[in-house]
Amino acid sequence: MDAKGPTTILVVDDERSVRALVKSVLEKHGYTIVEAVDGEQALEFLTQAPSDVALVVTDIVMPGMSGVDLAARLQQLRPTLPVLLMTGFADEDTEALHRFVHIRKPFQPGALVRRVAELLTGRPA
């Protein structure tokens, strides 16, 4: 289930430890990871560069722009760019969780890798 060729994923989370964990897990499976500390930084990065970003993995709850707001903005900016929302809260905005693909924290590394692969290939891993 490793990435085929260089696939870049943007990881957005205000918690350094979460970004480091996601980065470590995905790099072990051949993905290239770039990081942003919030939605504003992610949007800035994506508008300046990167048609090479294949997926955005973002926390839902962050200071400033939420992950849901970021995902909605990305749908307008790059409609084909998949977004995976991460949430650690059971009472999270359920409408948003139905509109976007998500994974609940804490998650097993294998579950994250499977979810990422599903979004990148468009089929269940």
Describe the overall structure.
- The chain contains five helices and five strands.
- It is of the alpha/beta class and 125 residues long.
- The protein has a single domain (7-121), classed as Rossmann fold (3-Layer(aba) Sandwich).
- Strand 1 (7-12), helix 1 (16-27) and strand 2 form a beta-alpha-beta unit.
- The model has no long low-confidence stretch (mean pLDDT 88).
Which key features would you list for this structure?
5 helices, single chain, alpha/beta, Rossmann fold, 125 residues
Radius of gyration: 13 Å
Largest sheet, described in full?
5 strands, parallel
Name the average pLDDT.
88
Strand line-up across the major sheet? 2-1-3-4-5
Task: Enumerate how many helices there are, as a single number.
Answer: 5
Provide the CATH topology.
Rossmann fold
Order of helices and strands: EHEHEHEHEH
Specify the structural class.
Answer: alpha/beta
Low-confidence residue ranges: none
Distance between the termini: 8 Å
Number of strands: 5
The CATH architecture would be 3-Layer(aba) Sandwich
* Residue share in helix: 40-55%
| Outline | globular
* CATH class (first level) name: Alpha Beta
The count of domains is 1
Strand content: 15-25%
CATH superfamily: Response regulator
